[in-house]
Amino acid sequence: MAQGRATGGGPKGPKPQAIDEAVILERYGSNALRFAGAPDALYERRLKLDNVVEPDRADARERYEAAARAVRDIVADRWLRTDETYARENPKRVYYLSIEFLIGRSLGNNVMNLMLDPVIERAFGEDSHQWAEILHQEPDAGLGNGGLGRLAACFLDSMATLQLPAMGYGLRYEHGIFRQTIRNGWQDERPDNWLRHPDPWEVVRPSESVEVTFGCSFELRAGALRMIPNSPSSLVGIPYDRPVIGYGGETVNTLRLWSATALHAFDFQRFSGGDFVASIAEALNAESLTRVLYPDDTTVQGRELRLMQEYFLVACSLGDIVRRFRETNDDWRTLPDKAAIQMNDTHPTLAVPELMRILLDEARLDWDEAWDITRRTLAYTNHTLLPEALERWPVDWMQLLIPRHLELIYEINRRLVADIRARFPGDEARVARTSLIEEGQTKHIRMANLAIVGSHSTNGVAAIHSRLLRTTTVKDLAEAFPERFNNKTNGVTPRRWLRLANPWLAEAITASIGDAWITDLAELKKLKPLAEDAAFRAELHKAQRACKARFADWVKRHTDVVVDPDSMFDCQIKRIHEYKRQLLNALRIVVLYDRLRENPKLDMRPRTFFFAGKAAPAYHLAKVIIKFINNLGQTLDEDPVVGGKLKVVFLPEYNVTLAERCIPAADVSNQISTAGYEASGTSNMKFMMNGALTLGTRDGATIEMAEEAGEENFFLFGLTAAEVANSRPWYSPYWHYENEAETRKALDLIFSDHFSREERGVFEPLRGALLTNGDPYMHLADLTSYLAADAALSALHRQPDEWARKVIHNIAASGKFSSDRTIHEYATEIWGAKPCPAG
User: Fold this and answer.
1) Which of 4-18, 54-68, 776-790 has the highest mean pLDDT?
2) Do 526 and 513 form a contact (C-beta atoms < 8 A)?
3) Residue 514 region by backbone torsions, left for phi larger than 0, else alpha for psi between -120 and 50, else beta
4) Which domains does the chain have, with CATH numbers?
5) Rounded to two decimals, what is the model's pTM?
6) What stretch of H or E contains 384?
7) Left (φ > 0), alpha (ψ -120 to 50) or beta: where does 43 sit?
8) Mean per-residue pLDDT, 560-565
9) Catalytic residues
10) Catalyzes what (predicted)?
């Protein structure tokens, strides 16, 4: 298959082409064709051999497992060939370390990337509902929660599509974060047992397990695990591999997930001797380590478990990376030439002292050589400007859990502080700010500082984020090491988020400009002239209507809520947090509702507001916001004055599958974070790519999106990041309450218990957030501007042709926001990695 590489037009993967039977046979062998419906089809054989069931008696779950294993069988040769090529060619490999990988469902995505659509059509063409039912049986993998994990998943897709020799490393969480349900308007957390059935995609590799040693051991006392100092203990990381298939199936990389188990799974002698609790505690502790994503951080035990998870991920992954390196390389000094290790946020930062430990204690290198190798091998991506979100770990905990690493961190810091003092003599305040050790009653290790100092590259994920990172968040370190800082604006994979999620729009685009956009999203710029093409605008409308009808059906089946597909779909789907300002969105709706209460005959086009997202279990105010959104929706439904003009729907259990349905159906994308707080965002890119118009602040990547499409095609509002920062000393939310009539009336309506008549006072925490505590995220400062932008958007929606023109300009300008472009920049500017096509 012809390959394209990055030129001035951006990175390109395998050129899409029609697949016929001969191509399938050549690429994947007879297994692919046998899957297509012959009497001894691979799919049917899998049903019989794995599940011992006749095809006509198999249930939906059994059919899913058989189909998934059949597809995995088809890709197995290519997966092996990819690994063999890397072993033979010994290229520089990329290792992507992330605490999250929000990969969603795999079957449909893998079939698409393998270009096996003709096979599926042949096997299920006469019964497409059966294929849809099979796809529905796969749970979303509980390996992530939000944008951080979804970005990592998109990046793996792009690395494989661009044929980069790469591997992802994460943890195999047994229960994910939690399964969200709504009870009486409140978020309710339940275990997400996504692995209750066998996962047909994973391959366990016990022979490549890694032993991880902690500086303490653990005992079970009064139902709680307690650390015992000065008593080292070990756990074992067992690797589970999943295929990561590049588009076209040419390269199949690996996502390796680590599961924890006890070094000795069950000590029969101890148990038989009567030490029942101790023998079981070891196994329970080991299994608990990878049981959930983000343990409850309101307890000391939960935070300690989080630190253990982070070290376990790093120790297992670096142990595996070093093993791979040593298989084909004898000289430790060549490690930076053969391995690029990317730390996705601060969670894998312990890779810095862990790699130093390996080079000093195992390779026996001197400090300077080990430090040079470590820095040139590691790179760090920062994802937050919020000081409270920059990880800090108590020194005492590290002394208990990983004392050797703490020793190394202190030595790194001693040398860092000496360097800063030499370069900035007399500036002890600067020394204190750059130090890896945060002094205080309890000393902490600043993980972001350690990641920056211990790597050769620190990148932000949007232009504004990278600038603020350098000038505010870690200003002193950026001044000390300016050459290490750079920007890599995020991107998303167009394969999953356009071709798979929105087949109607994808087909309309392909019919107009060809299918090269699938691996070169810059091709979408060819759509721009079609904004004046009435026929294409009509196709766009048909595609959007199909997506909205599908989503309305999905909402009815999953929530029993009926929505009007002809209403405007106005969406905000993301993690619930004050800075993301779901509360500002809700205030907008309260104002619109109050306008209807004053004038029931007001000409207001029907609109459905969709919210989705999870709140951290211990984040009470975020949970109150969810409760308020649900009560708001219930009040609107029950008030006859609304007359179907406004409807609010909170969709529980936000995940990739929900996003794949919601985003293509959206008319409006709300990206309304307080300016200067959102690092980048990726949902904004997905919405833009699918034709939703953005109603947003000048924050994160939304700024660059508006630059690409033209601000005239966006609905921007609110304070800029500089205005937010400059107004901090004098900002008073009471001014807006006292001087803006609609703001005051909306707040008075909330605090009068209009939305909580049976639960009086339940929304008092909102008074604290918006008024009493100073409105730190400036909801009230931006509300009036938000309403003005909303009015302009609503007016445009009455002009379908003008709306469609802006939609087309947005889609045509979304090419920059492909993860292929982002990964190409990482590969050329940070990793120094080149494609290595599987031979």
Assistant:
1) 776-790
2) yes
3) left
4) 1-88 (no CATH), 567-814 (3.40.50.2000)
5) 0.94
6) none
7) alpha
8) 97
9) 383, 574-575, 580, 682, 686
10) [(1->4)-alpha-D-glucosyl](n) + phosphate = [(1->4)-alpha-D-glucosyl](n-1) + alpha-D-glucose 1-phosphate
